[in-house]
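Morning F.,

Quick status update on the modeling queue. The single chain you submitted on Monday has been processed. Sequence for confirmation:
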Amino acid sequence: MSGEDCLFTNYSPAQVAFTHGNGVRLWDARGREYLDFIAGIATSSLGHAHPRLVEAIAGQAERYLHVSNLYRIPEQEVAAGLLIEATRHKDLGLDRVFFCNSGTEANEAAIKIARKRGSAQGRYKILATHAGFHGRTIGSLAATGTPRYKEGFGPLPEGFFFVDYNDLEGAVAAVDEEFCAVLVEPMQGEGGIHPSNPGYLSGLEALCRDQDLLFMLDEVQTGIGRTGSMFGFHHYGVQPDLITLAKGLGGGVPVGAVVARDEVAALLVPGDHGSTFGGNPLATVAVAAVLETIHDEGLLDSVQRMGERLRAELLTLDAVESVRGLGLLIAAELVIEAAPVVNRCLEHGLLVNAVGPKSVRFAPPLIVTAGEVDRALAIFSRVLSTFAPSKEDGAPR
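Structure tokens below.
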């Protein structure tokens, strides 16, 4: 029996296995080179084998990996301080951090916080959005607005209600006295890379203030520089009560976080919630290395420039109907099916993925250069030309 035969079959991976990487490039077992424009699903924020991240992880491994949250963890405290500072925007920010291991765990913690806050008044409902994605565990799955992820796993926890993304009127109409929170993404990620409309998030914030709801933003995919600001909410002039993070936070090391205002964080007292591995020294030195590198290398400005370059050039391609997204989280809407394009890109040495029937996601490491963007565009253009699409007829010729 091969090693592959020993694994669950809940994934259907492409038949390529990588042996090592450097920067935005990966190499497979045959020595073939690839441009990584998916970054482990927007996770490898500093690319592969970044010297600063490698040094931080290796140095920590030589000291100690894990002691648990029974004791103070200095590395966790340093990372928390950097993360709190990173939330500051126009003199506003968040105050406290809870570390866990993933985005779904962060959203589970957020749901528990919201439920606890509302419990005394019998308020338990949480408003979320159709096509939203918040994770695969039972609680975060219940908050996810995509039915296909839920099939076969019911009954799920009750109390989650869904409206269309960007439908502020629908949100206002849905809320009653039993609601305790709103949970949305600043830009839908797995739902197809859909940014929020002007006024949508500020309107949700106003609704939350008026109805005394927690305003919770899922920044698992949009956070840590991915959109060209440190967090997606920085684009919209809003101040959430709580955000959830993961993906790019550790540059590939599994780590998640909830970052919240003081009075929100205070809702969890000893014994209410915890994590054996959450915030361990290895994960949190990675967090610190990522945050420091983004700052020291000026990556936010670079993400904005590279994102604009990528968007502009994608729009020139005949097979591209439109382009959505912010920074380096971009979807190209095609006039043909996306899956065959993604597969052929892999054959030509470019890693992207589909986030819709005709949507291709580009989410390269934040360190990507202009030359690498241009090279990826050249590959993508060449692949599209093999399908010979037309914007007029929307079909291959």
